[in-house]
Amino acid sequence: MLIVLTGIDGSGKSTAAQALVSAIRADGGTATLLNNHAGRRSMSVLGTRLGIRLPPRVADALETTFRVWNVLVNHLRANRADGLVVMDRHLYCQLALRATKGLPRGRLLPWLLGALPAPDAVVHLDVDPAVAHRRISARGTDAEALEDLIAFARAYRELPEYGSFEKVDASISSPELARRLAEVVRGLGRPLWRDATRPPRSGRRL
């Protein structure tokens, strides 16, 4: 089973993905976490230190290269994995970033989305950009302008694929968010244990 998490910076994707995988494993299930980062945060931090801001097309070219490579490699890993595979980010994220920068979708990313195995669910972590901005400021590892987060959130909503996403309120606490993600997984009705006849240790089904 493959689940993809999307959402703007500060929506809690990485934290939620790790919490979901940990919960599945703690309950006796098999789960793998794969990250489809584009190096955007690292480039942003480095650019700030050096006082350099890359042109949008140059930044997108670098991000897309890293993102596509990670997505392709991780789909190969997912194909060999048992149980649940959670992907933190995907090509949808790069398409939304392009829209935020006023860049066209292009042909490669939409083509890859059609060629790669479709996820069992794409879960979008929906959060108010102001809340996301406060979270980013609090962690202090990078910086995002509130207006950029607002544009990012709007770009996600305008994706043609957005209507098929499962939307989950990400303004709640991390434990509650992990519980709601587990409900999405449970609703798909697929076994998460290597031996599908073996129940989880706690006797509960996720």
UniProtKB/TrEMBL annotation:
Belongs to the thymidylate kinase family. Residues 7-173 form the Thymidylate kinase-like domain. This is Thymidylate kinase. The keyword Nucleotide-binding applies. Pfam families: Thymidylate_kin. The keyword Transit peptide does not apply. PANTHER family: THYMIDYLATE KINASE (PTHR10344), UMP-CMP KINASE 2, MITOCHONDRIAL (PTHR10344:SF4). It comes from the Bacteria. Keywords: ATP-binding, Nucleotide-binding.
